[in-house]
Amino acid sequence: MEKVEISEDIVRFVEDLISSGEEKFEVIKLRVLDEESEQHDDELIDSVIHDFTIVLQGLASDLAGWYGEPRIALDEEEFDDETEEQGEEEGEPFYVPCSFSSAIWETEELILYLAVCQEDREFPIMLVVGVEY
Fold it and tell me: By CB neighbour count within 10 A (0-12 exposed, 13-18 middle, 19+ buried), where does 57 fall?
């Protein structure tokens, strides 16, 4: 089943998230893969990730008017295993763990991101928005 919680006004949603002053993320779209057959269906997973990435790109476009153009990462393979294992080093670009695609806005005060993520095949595929300070 697919659950959609996307705010009609993503800018206001993000402003509220930032104004909370907390490092957190919110799930704005979710696809649970209930059956084991779905969890191992690469075509289905790729299709869901593709659909979520299209939504991400639309939301990123809406946010670009307020926060500028984001840095876009379209494949987790752009990041090597050492980046994930060692964490972010000084000067290294921010990376959203377990993400397939992401839009990232980095400022001196905060990092804002949208990302399509899935930790493992048994976990849901999620479109998230988050902030880190």
Answer: middle
How confident is the model over 73-96, as pLDDT tens digits? 987 554 444 444 444 556 788 989
Could you tell me the two tokens for 130?
């988050």
The long-range contacts involving 119-126, CB below 8 angstroms and separated by at least 24 positions, are: 121/33, 121/39, 121/40, 121/45, 122/33, 122/39, 124/30, 124/31, 124/32, 124/33, 125/30, 125/31, 125/33, 125/45, 125/48, 125/49, 125/52, 126/27, 126/29, 126/30, 126/31
